[in-house]
Amino acid sequence: MLIDINVNLPGPSSPKRRPLPPQIVQFGTEELVLIELQGALEVDGNKDGQLVGNLRVDPNTKKPTMMIGHHLLEGKLVNLAKPLAVLHKHGSPPGADDGAAMEVEDGSSRPAAHATSWDVVAVVKKKMVFAKRPLPVVGHSTGKGSSAVPLSRIGSKAV
Amino acid sequence: MSGITEQCELRFSPSSSTDTGTFKLLELPADICKLIESSDTANFPRFTIIGATDEDAVLCTADKTYTVRSVVLSNSILVVTSDPLGENVEDDDEPIHEVFIRDQLQEVIELVPSVPRLHKLNSFLRGREYDEGHEDEDMGTNSDDDVSEKRQKFTYEDARSTIQASHAELDKGLRDRRILILNGELRPIARSHLTTILELILTNLVSLSLPHTAAPIATLVSALEDEHDIRSAVSRQVLGWFGRVDENRGTWEMNVDAVIREVGLGILRVYWNDPAHDKAFLAQWRKAVGDTFEDKVALPLLSGNYLTSIDSLSEPPKTLLTYFPSSELPVEPGARFAELFLARPRWKIEEISPFLADISVDAKERDKLLLKHARTVTDPEGIWYAARAKYSG
């Protein structure tokens, strides 16, 4: 079983994709940022395009904060000890090979055993970390869109 | 509302269902990171993950192998990008207020440098040895032997996709193990046949008066093929193993020591059970390599492949040689020392060193191994290394 990993980083010649807002870029790369949460986002139902919360970076202190429903998270910038490559499964048609399903032909292993290939789409050296407990915010309007019932909530930490 | 520009909405990707599971995080060792960063878009490196279901996967670069380990995180990491559907930048300067979660990850893949895992070659290639008289079997009609017919061919391509080693390491492994690639199939050469071919090369160099520093390959190969039925595909690869092939000029520069060593090994191999007298052995070896090279014959070429002992019964005492190849000793240091001390209870440093050369990268590491697995005994003859623990009285 072989899995190819190609490096496909944006270069000067590659078509420009939409960059991230400048205040977010300082936590990752032009196009991608990693946000670490304690616990996980748990969502019921279809989550396509749904609002999770509002992300704000203080222009002076550079401190990120995130409002999720009535919870305020305070974050910080963390430099990674070792750089992380972000891999993205390469243009596989949806459903063609479901995640971990491996195409293993016993015994006869041919070059055609290339099941999937992955692209290195970014090399990141820092991340935005929200490690503290969320602070409940009472009687505070979270701005536009807050009237909608938040679909997501901070899941309890596993284990 | 203060500072609307600092604030943006964090949303799930509009294509969440197809995005989920399509991202992974790979921790990059410094050398791979440097490799990626030092190359530009035109020649980015390629990596391959190789592994069967029953083995730990490895990641290979062009010339290195890393073990792949998945580390589960207690936190989760969101992969956030701009709108995945808005492909190109429209030339409006409208600030972006939305960022999108493409995937939520709970594990990171770690890479740990590893030695190439070539040992599987041995089991894949068992019984596929190439020997004299195998020339015609490519017709595939050896119906008298059902077992060998069922045995699948193991090709170079198979090795590339199943052996957990980078291409450079695999190629070196095949060379070191003297494995031929014939019509794409991997065939380890029988050692006795290899010795025969090398002896023929030596005699032909002399009989055709070819210079061993720049022998014309075509002449040599056709002489071997016409007079000794050695296929050119075989002899060309053997020439590659034992010298430098100059493709442009079509010449071969013999690695004299390597050839003489292999011929010596071929002779020595017989004496694994019944030791040879060193003088007789050297005479036989000199005869085999011929007049031109006989002064190059020297026992140190075979170090790590023989043990010496003194036959004190003969008068005067003779030195005896026994075939004892370090390549067949265990790779694991503890087991190797056990075998060494079984063969001989105590060793001088210069005697034991050749048998540790292939499991230690340098003298410092060798001394560390000796410190750990042996103890020193000093007597008037000097320092000896002996087994660490002796439980029997």
Give your account of this protein's structure.
The complex is a heterodimer of chains A (159) and B (393). Chain A is mainly beta. Helix content of chain A is 3%, strand content 42%. Chain A has 1 helix and 10 strands. Chain A has one helix at 22-25, and strands spanning 2-7, 32-38, 41-42, 51-57, 64-68, 71-74, 76-89, 114-130, 135-136, 153-154. In chain A, the strands form 3 sheets. In chain A, strands 1, 2, 7 and 8 form a 4-stranded mixed β-sheet that branches. Chain A is globular. Chain B is an alpha+beta fold and 393 residues long. Residues 138-149 of chain B have low confidence and may be disordered. In chain B, the strands form 5 sheets. In chain B, strands 1, 2, 3, 4, 5 and 6 form a 6-stranded mixed β-sheet that branches. Chain B has a 3-stranded antiparallel β-sheet with strand order 9-11-10. A 3-stranded antiparallel β-sheet of chain B has the order 12-14-13. The longest helix of chain B is centred in the middle third of the chain and has 17 residues, at 191-207. Chain B is extended and about 95 Å long. Chain B has 14 helices and 17 strands. Among the domains of chain B are: 4-88 and 95-114, Immunoglobulin-like (Sandwich), CATH 2.60.40; 291-387, no CATH class. The interface between A and B is large, with 80 and 71 residues. Chain A: One of its GO terms (molecular function) is DNA binding. Chain A: Keywords: Cell cycle, DNA replication, DNA-binding, Nucleus. Chain A: It is found in: Nucleus. Chain A: This is Ctf8-domain-containing protein. Chain A: One of its GO terms (biological process) is mitotic sister chromatid cohesion.
